[in-house]
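REVIEWER CHECKLIST
Item 1: Sequence provided? yes
Item 2: Single chain? yes
Item 3: Sequence as submitted:
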Amino acid sequence: MRVQTNRLAERPADAAPHDPAHRVFAQLAAAPWAGRHRITVDQDETTWLQVKFAAINTLPPVGKQKRYSPQVLTYIHALEENPPPGREPIDWKLVTNLPVENLSVAVEKLGWYALRWKAEVFHKVMKSGCRAEEARLETAERLAKFLALIAVVSWRIFFVTMSARAKPDAAPDSVLTFAEITALDQIDASRTRPPSNGPRSPPTCCKSPCLAAISPANMTRLLATWSSGAA
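Item 4: Structure as written out by the authors:
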């Protein structure tokens, strides 16, 4: 998970009395960089991240130290090396209770966190597109069936949307069946074309799979697609 609070940490034995090493971020900053990892941002831009990690004995807040014990947590810092002008650098600090022994494992955890944006898009489809929160079903069984149904529908919309982002010029039959394309063409024609007594050309709304999904402009922006390059 992402961490923003500079929590208390066990002070190293050799730290000076006023040394800020009793904070997590100070100990993480003192750790050496483990290596670099290449990512793709917005599908057409690549950049390099410096990655470091450190296992730190993290203390509970002062007021809760009688109730909770310290925990050894692993903190991972990923910092973009040379961000382009006009864009904030990628600067992630993550924390996990899973062991991180080397750079590849740290990159794996960063990749897991990068999936957060896709998870948010999927749940937005369920909530805004399928209006899951507006359901007023009287029994848990009916609610479970309803959620199971819209989960499949939401995944399908999510898949088509992500396919459109990755390959906007791909043929519609790469993600849709002939019956689905025909139905979408008919729906689009009835909504966007005024009635006409003359001959009408065949509808062509399905030039892009994105037309079957929620507009990407209204979706949460996917920040980074992680590649496998590391150095």
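Item 5: Key structural point noted by reviewer: Confidence is low (pLDDT under 50) at residues 200-230.
Item 6: Recommendation: ____
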